[in-house]
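Course assignment 3, question 2. Fill in each field.
Student: A.L.
Task: Predict the tertiary structure for the chain below.
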Amino acid sequence: MLYREAGQFKTTYKSDSQIFPILQDRIGMMILLLIALVAIPLFASEYWLNAILIPFLIFSLAALGLNILTGYAGQLSLGSAAFMAVGAYATYNFQLRIEGIPFILSFILGGLSAAAVGILFGLPSLRIKGFYLAVATLAAQFFVVWCLTKFPWFSNNSSSGVISAQTLSLFGFAFDTPVSKYLLVLIIVSTLALLAKNLVRSSTGRAWMAVRDMDVAAEVIGIPLMKTKLMAFAISSFYCGIAGALYAYCYLGSVEPDGFSLDLSFKILFMVIIGGVGSILGNFLGAAFILLLPIFLDITLPFISQLLHLPIPSSVVSHIQLMVFGSLIIFFLIVEPHGLARLWQITKEKLRLWPFPH
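Answer field:
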């Protein structure tokens, strides 16, 4: 009864096409934003902000970028970490070499640099697709890391390629505390997520989905494949580049090229698959699953071993974590291949019809 939309009439096209057409969704989103903007900065500890919430938001943004390319445009990519690296190192160089540049502008320029690299490595998508395209984007992963390692100019002549992020400041206010960094990341991620939600509902998003479903039919009805695919690569890489800049400046503080490895690309891909391909909400659910489940297992497994009086060494506990983690991933993919976002959508549909079975 709490999620019933009876009596909510849509009398204009504007009210019918809004992002959250149901009143309960709008109220729930406002409450969630109030909790994120007010309650969490007041009550969350520095550990939660630095180690959990900030990386959760950053990886959600990176997964959102990959989901735009893979989930909506249907183009496989294994180079998300490489585009994050381009965004991080480009932002560092803009901050270093252009005196007085606002850090927001350097973030945008870093994202645009990643978009340019994404377009370059997205050119093979005009001729190949599927696993062949995944291999082509895999080349970006190795090429970008190789360039950042072999050309010391990108890291300001650092022998190891490590860069240390400068302190972010805006109008004299320095973002040097966990709360300020969290609020900065939250505002940027929320804004980009809202833009992505509107983008996939526009004609551009419909063109992406047409190309994803059948590119030949999309070209027959007049959708330009070259423009559509390259735009998907550019916007996806832009989002990953912004995520890489936040990763360096608001999370780690210093990064190295090897930190943006293939493992990170697969981690982002798993977030998209588990959360839900072709879903904005799924990126946040997938990031929460990937980041919070190991912490939950790290806490519960020693407790269970003590409760059952089983002397399990810490090394065995780490292996059990990997086994449970992999088993749960397989379980979720079998139960609902469309990810956690689909499970949430089914729950909402049942609540809207309750107590009726269909």
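Instructor remarks: The two ends are 15 Å apart (CA to CA). The chain is about 70% helix and 5% strand.
Grade: pending
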